[in-house]
Amino acid sequence: MSDICRVLLADDHVLVAEGIQKLLEPEFELVGIVADGRSLVAAAAKLQPDIAVVDISLPLLNGLDASQHVKKTNPNIKIIILTMHSEPNFVTQAFRVGVSGYVLKQSVGSELVQAIREVMKGRTFVSPMVTQSLVDQAVNPSGSGEANGFAQTLSSRQREVLQLVAEGKATKEIASILNVSIKTVEFHKTRIMKELRLRTAAELTKYAISAGLTSIH
C-alpha cells in the first residue's frame, strides 16, 4: 500500500483548482477534483481519499454540510477547509462538523501543504490568522456565542433548500435534486421564510450569500 497521501479537492473555481493541483502534485496524489458539494459526497465515497480539501461556498450543497455528510459515511477521511471566510462562526461550525484543518485561501501557497502534513500526523491545523481560541471554543463550547452565522438557526435540509433557491433552481428541480416531493420543498421554503423573516426570493438569495451558502455574486 502506497504511503503517498491521496487528496480529493472540492472547489468550483477552475483557476484556483488548477493552482492547488500544481501546488500539491509534487508531494501528494490528487485523486480527483469536484466542483460542487454533492459531487464531493459521491467522490469521497467512491475514491476514499485520505484527505478532502473543501471550499465552503460550493454549488448545490455548501462545503460544511457536504463535509458533515462525508464524515458521517466515511469517518476516516480527514477534511481541510480551504476558504476566504475567516469569520468566527464559520470556523466554529467547521470544527463542530469534524474537520481537521482550516486554511485561508490568501495563505494557501504557504500553508496548505503544511496543513496536509500536520493533519496526516493526526494533528489539527489552523491558519495563524485564525486564532486558536476559536477552535477551543468550537471543541468545548461553554459560552453563549451567537448562532446566527452559517444559517445555524436552520436545519441542514432547510440550508440545502435555501441554497438551491438562491442558486435560481425551480421548485421542481430542487425536489428532483433532493429526491423529495414538490410539496415538501414548498413546505421548507415557507418555514425558512418564516424563520428568517424574509418575504422574497431576492431576500433569500441575499441571506444565503451573506451566510456563505453560495458564492453567487
Automatic annotation (TrEMBL):
Pfam families: GerE (PF00196), Response_reg (PF00072). Coiled coil: none annotated. GO terms for biological process: phosphorelay signal transduction system; regulation of DNA-templated transcription. It comes from the Bacteria. Keywords: DNA-binding, Phosphoprotein, Transcription, Transcription regulation. The modification 4-aspartylphosphate is found at residue 55. Signal peptide: none annotated. PANTHER family: NITRATE_NITRITE RESPONSE REGULATOR PROTEIN NARP (PTHR43214:SF41), TWO-COMPONENT RESPONSE REGULATOR (PTHR43214). This is Response regulator, LuxR family. It comes from Nitrospira moscoviensis. The lineage of its organism: Bacteria, Pseudomonadati, Nitrospirota, Nitrospiria, Nitrospirales.
